[in-house]
Amino acid sequence: MAKTEFYSGIKVRFHQRKLSILINQVQIKAAEAAGYPVNISLTSIFNNTGKIAPGKITRRDIYSIYNYDNYLLVLEINGDILRCALEKNAAYFKQVNIDDLPGLPEEVLAENHLGYNWDLYSGIDYTIDITKPVGKRVTKLQLDGKNIEPNQVLRIAMNSYRANGGSDYLMFKEVKKFWRSATEIRELIAEYVKNKGIIESDIISSEGLKFFPDLYQQYFGN
């Protein structure tokens, strides 16, 4: 049963919202249960229509928020690879002029953007400045309040599509992989929901994603 609504849509692409936090929680806990604890987890929000409404949760609800048959992997990367992935991730947005922002949130997205190419990370604090050109947008990258160094070793959980270099995230393709789940991520979500009974997004002890300018405040105001 869901205590509150977990929704997708355009809003969740501008802020760490309940849905991305929920999926990352599932991935972090599954990796830990398998004996491969991680520092970081990332997930995509695949579509703008899926949601879990307050009340009883069905398998159809879960498949609506996670409509791909991905598996979960744990990878070993370093800070340089992480920054490279985040810079590619930040190319999901156009470069903007802070004094002349587009009128609609959809107009901030890059041409030919695809929903599953925008990842949301849990476990790190990071700031993306979309007034800067592609490749130079990550202005803050920290773990536990400390800057992540280029050679710092990290473990990260992600779906099999991204781990295998999907959508040209080639920086992940050749790195060391420790573990692959035996079941699909959406089944891990279903199992988590069943075991939890009542779900709500736990507070993550990390500021998570911030944009400059603050796109969520600009377009949604709450």
Radius of gyration: 17 Å
Structural class by sheet pairing and helices: alpha+beta
Which CATH class applies here? Alpha Beta
User: What would you give as the CATH superfamily?
Assistant: 5'-Nucleotidase, C-terminal domain
Low-confidence stretches: none
Specify the number of helices. 6
Strand content: 15-25%
Strand order within the widest beta sheet:
5-2-9-4-10
Q: How would you state the average pLDDT, rounded?
A: 90
Q: Give helix and strand order, one letter per element, not per position.
A: EHEEHEHEEEEEHEHEH
Q: Which outline best applies?
A: globular
Number of strands: 11
What is the count of distinct domains? 1
Ends: how far apart?
A: 25 Å
Q: Report helical residue fraction.
A: 25-40%
User: CATH fold name, please?
Assistant: 5'-nucleotidase,  domain 2
CATH architecture: Alpha-Beta Complex
